[in-house]
């Protein structure tokens, strides 16, 4: 008789409390809207401006939907603090910051999508998650298109030196 093997446990994402997660999402969306206002002004051509305007419209929809879900759960919308967002020092730095923020938001929304059961909460996180992934791809495209990677790799005030090979000590 063969022994039955136990199934491995499913490694689920850690689930932060829904209220705090929604508040963090709302603050993040409000900051993104403000930040993309700066990037739209700095974009070098109309195509890039239009894409970022579209992205900012998505963030406004996410903000609205997260507030709608929050209101259903808590009975009122979240009175979030005024976002303090600095204008990036140049367009490339702004694109890199935007790319990183979109990636972070994607991970955060994914975790919350999988660990919440309420269909309204899941829907809001899924919708935003899919958009943030697309936004990250656009920013990655613009980083390449504007030659940002090379500029930053060669270092604005930074030098890259080869690390000395670590010595291998033998007995
Ligand atoms: Fe968003
Ligand atoms: Fe986004």
Q: What are the key terms here?
A:
single chain; 171 residues; mainly alpha; Ferritin; 0% strand; disordered C terminus; binds fe (ii) ion
Task: Give a written overview of the molecule.
The chain is mostly helical and 171 residues long. The chain has helices at residues 18-42, 46-74, 91-115, 119-145, 148-153. The protein has a single domain, classed as Ferritin (Up-down Bundle). The protein has 5 helices and no strands. The longest helix is centred in the middle third of the chain and has 29 residues, at 46-74. It starts with 17 loop residues before the first helix and ends in an 18-residue tail after the last helix. The chain binds fe (ii) ion (2 copies). Residues 32, 55, 59, 102, 131-132, 135 line the site of one fe (ii) ion. The site of one fe (ii) ion has 8 residues, from helix 1, helix 2 and helix 4.
Provide a brief overview of the structure:
With 171 residues, this protein is mainly alpha-helical.
Please identify the top-level CATH class: Mainly Alpha
Q: What ligand species are in this complex? A: fe (ii) ion
Task: State which percent range the strand residues make up.
Answer: under 5%
Helix content: 55-70%
- For the termini, the CA-CA separation is 51 Å
Class based on secondary structure composition and strand pairing: mainly alpha
